[in-house]
Amino acid sequence: MKHIVIKVSKIALLGAVLLGPVGCKDFLDEQAPSNLTPDNFYTIPDHAEAALAAVYADMRFMGDGAGIFSSNWQLLEALTGTSTTETAQNSDLNNLYGLVHDGNTVHVVNYWNGLYKVIAQANQVLDKVPAITPMDAAQKTKILGEARFLRANAYFTAVRLWGDIPLITKPQTAASEDFQPARTPQEAIYKQIVDDLTAAESAGLAWTDLTGRVNQAAVKTLLSKVYLTMAGFPLSKGATHYKLAADKALEVITYANANPTVIGLFASLEDVHKESTENRLEHLFELQYNTLVAGNPMDNMYPNFKPVTYNGPSGTGSTVPVPSFYASYEPGDLRAKDQGYFYSTYYTNGNGAPFALGANYVFKHFNRTSNGTAGVAGTRQNNLNVPQIRYAETLLIYAEAQNELGTPTQAAYDALKKVRDRAGLTTPALGTYTQASFREAVWRERWHELCYEQITWFDMVRLRKVYNDKTNGFDNFVGHINPSSNQPLQEKHLLLPLGKQEMLNNPNLKTQNPGYPQ
């Protein structure tokens, strides 16, 4: 873990140097940049803001490269069976598609390192910022609340991927007692996640934030999602946590109903991926991208060597829909219509003559502003954010959790229906559903609404169920045949393997997750 701590300190300090004040007195009073350390850096409020900005920036690790024609984010799509590849030039990505990944697979290693870097950065903020004086109390509380959300979010991803993992809540050095930490039981990890999110809820955050920072709607939705996960596998806490999930999601829904211009569903599916709608209405929390710092990383979803952008024939096609999944959408579903969440035709070089792509591709992360559209040239600057929490998910969390408490209620039905209404679908009357049929209706909606947003894999793990796009039903996780590889999911696939090098660096991690080579 040492290399992570060192890198964190340097990056946080660099951010502070770039973003900190430049007044003459401040310049004279402050340490020279070459002499900054975590112990003498956190002295003024601007340092706290810069350090928090470094945590946000490190969340973009998911968009970093993972070898030729691949990015880290593809880890959570390749395993689901809803996507495949047209190029097959990245062996690590191929191993994920083929369900033969191991502790050397680069995406697995990069996710571990990326998440723990976010955690280490957040730990620095949470440890150092409280002592900054003078500093406005509300500003300090807000920064600490945001940092706790970001740490909770990283731990929530990590615990679902690896199970028992090291729990680190303080900055580490080589002299730290827990410099080589052992794995902590999942129950304790989840307690820390809930504690962090509960603290973030009390931090005085605004309900929404157009700058893209953590906000109350995002905190409450993530907390409801954590409770929903705890209700399912592997903790299996059941009804108590379904109720917690439903109640917390309902708080967001209640606010949205009272403030429909602030939080709600976009009227158009196109608005889900517009630069002009970023951090607004449905987008409760997103990873922020701007080409001045880092451009949108989702290009691997573009079709292989077809001229859909200003770049002409380009794109890798290394994450494309499995045909059977695309075909599983209901007739008339606007999400499956051309240029809904998928597209089968586009304009040559982005803004020229229309042409057929020959297959269906993911349109959900396609930026018309940068790539071009009918008769309008693209800006060539892909500043599109990547959604992390959408209000559509809040509605579906509520519908699922509330239904698990008994028969489907009108409120749960209304939440499901809102998502389906936007997709142009007719929803059967409430009285036609049983608890079991409503449960599967919500699950199906999650697969079709939230696909290709790094969510589906976690649904598979917490439910121990997988959508069968040929039967329109749900299979048990173990034994389900992934259409992308024609291989069955195994018990071992419920967790990722620990990275080989990490286990060598830290012998206290000890036993590899079951089913993977030691």
Please describe what this structure looks like.
The chain is mainly alpha-helical. Among the domains are: 168 residues, Serine Threonine Protein Phosphatase 5, Tetratricopeptide repeat, CATH 1.25.40; 86 residues, no CATH class; 96 residues, Serine Threonine Protein Phosphatase 5, Tetratricopeptide repeat. The chain contains 18 helices and twelve strands. The chain has a two-stranded antiparallel ribbon. A two-stranded antiparallel sheet has the order 2-8. α9 packs antiparallel against α10, α10 packs antiparallel against α11 and α10 packs parallel to α14. It is globular and about 60 Å long. The two termini are 20 Å apart. 48% of the residues are buried. The N terminus is likely disordered. It comes from Larkinella knui. Its main location: membrane.
Q: What profile does the largest beta sheet have?
A: 2 strands, antiparallel
**CATH topology assignment of the domain at 42-183 and 486-511:** Serine Threonine Protein Phosphatase 5, Tetratricopeptide repeat
Main β-sheet, spatial strand arrangement: 1-5
Helix amount, in percent?
40-55%
Helical segment count:
18
Number of strands: 12
Question: Which stretches are poorly predicted, pLDDT < 50 over at least 5 residues?
Answer: 1-30
